[in-house]
Write a structure and sequence with these properties.
mainly beta, five-stranded mixed beta sheet, 33% strand, globular
Length: 108
């Protein structure tokens, strides 16, 4: 991969509760008996005052599977990293009900 002028690529992320459809480039329902799937490299590009886009799911990204942490002085969980805007053909409510989240590591 060629390094971008602004932003960075992150690899090694995992999804739970759904999968990434590499042909259509959006979230898709999980395949039977598959709990976790690897994400393709994700590009993070800094943007001022970004408000999100329609047709995306704000997927929470956690450090570890427990999805819990202690509250820091800023009021955020120490396990929560950020939201990922992942493209989706379905309404976000479907992914929320399925408990979809992304993780940096499957084991600690």
């Amino acid at each position: 991969m060629v390094p971008p002028l602004a932003g960075c690529y992150i690899r090694g992320l995992f999804l739970e509760g759904c999968r990434w459809d590499e042909q259509r480039h959006h979230l898709a329902p999980s395949k039977p008996k598959v709990l976790f799937v690897s994400m393709p490299p994700v590009f993070f590009k800094p943007e001022l005052d970004w408000k999100g886009r329609s047709g995306t799911y704000s997927c929470p990204l956690y450090k570890v599977l427990s999805r819990k942490g202690t509250l820091s002085t800023t009021g955020h969980s120490t396990n929560f990293v950020r939201d990922l805007a992942l493209t989706s053909k379905e309404e976000p409510g479907q992914w929320i009900r399925a408990g979809v989240a992304a993780f940096l590591a499957l084991r600690y």
